[in-house]
Write a structure and sequence with these properties.
The chain is α/β, with parallel strands linked by helices. The chain has 5 helices and 12 strands. It has an 8-stranded mixed β-sheet, with helices on both faces. The chain has a two-stranded antiparallel ribbon with strand order 5-9. A two-stranded antiparallel sheet has the order 6-8.
Length: 289
């Protein structure tokens, strides 16, 4: 059994994207069974310690006994200290696996300081997308949020996604008509990810399409295991994993202003596809796919 840490980069503000807003994900991961019918993953979920010093777990993650870190960067830029980044980076160098996800504009930009995978995340004011044509607003509905902010649909709705290149194990879905993951939750303003050109182990595997501009955008970048460290994945938004995006009745912080949709409720296949994606990520990071 592998031990997964689900961790946010905030202290636990009840009116923010604290770790309790990922409870459906935790429950689903805990329910996954291995080939012998045994529980495949033990899951711990926590927010970071108060800022001002390194987080007691992240800064020493390489000594923790966890095999996977699923990091939800929900801060506004200061969510990880230098010690936190050093601990996470060493964890991966020692063979640990990472899923690192964020959201629009500069939300979660503290992850830029993570070795390797930090370079896959593009923000408004840090590590900008090298394609200057993408340094522009996509979601023109929520006007107080700037780029990157790809509009894949309302919270509570779903988007159709498309594999890039050879189908990666993370995207295989034997229950889909095509054998490939086809749907994920949508979000009005997703962030930007890309494969760092200097890293031959990294590639984009999945893309979506903006409902505002019609432009495609990257959703997931994988890093294969190498001398640099364990497997890792960079994801465009934590909203693919949040309770509110799986079930809007779970509620959201008060600053969320966009009206939700009910597409996932009306089309259960999209939520099934999403859960298959999550299961695939967990097994791939464990080296079992």
């Amino acid at each position: 059994m592998q031990h997964i840490l689900l961790q946010t980069t905030i202290e636990g503000d009840s009116d923010d994207w604290h770790i309790g807003r990922f409870s459906h994900l935790k429950a689903f991961l805990e329910g996954i069974r291995d080939e012998n019918g045994e529980q495949a993953f033990r899951v711990t979920a926590r927010n970071r310690d108060p800022l001002g010093q390194g987080d007691s777990v992240l800064s020493r993650l390489h000594e923790s006994g966890y095999q996977q870190l699923w990091l939800f960067a929900v801060d506004v830029g200061e969510g990880l200290t230098g010690d936190d980044c050093a601990g996470i980076s060493r964890f991966r160098r020692d063979g640990g696996s990472l899923l690192v996800t964020r959201d629009h504009m500069d939300l979660g930009s503290s992850i830029c300081n993570l070795a390797g995978i930090g370079a896959a995340h593009h923000f408004h004011s840090r590590n900008q997308d090298p394609d200057a044509s993408r340094q522009r607003i996509d979601d023109n509905i929520t006007t107080d949020i700037s780029w990157p902010n790809y509009h894949s649909g309302a919270n509570g709705d779903y988007q159709r996604v498309e594999a890039v290149g050879d189908v990666h194990p993370v995207l295989r879905d034997p229950e889909s008509d095509t054998g490939v993951i086809a749907f994920l939750p949508s979000h009005p303003h997703e962030g930007a990810v890309g494969a760092p050109p200097e890293d031959p182990t990294a590639r984009v595997i999945l893309k979506g399409c903006s409902q505002c501009s019609g432009r495609d955008f990257n959703i997931a970048v994988v890093f294969e295991q190498s001398e640099a460290g364990g497997r890792a994945m960079a994801e465009s938004t934590f909203h693919h994993f949040a309770d509110y995006n799986w079930d809007t009745s779970a509620g959201c912080p008060s600053f969320v202003s966009e009206p939700p949709g009910d597409g996932l409720l009306q089309f259960p296949e999209a939520l099934r596809s999403t859960k298959r994606y999550v299961q695939n990520i967990a097994f791939w990071l464990a080296g079992k796919a």
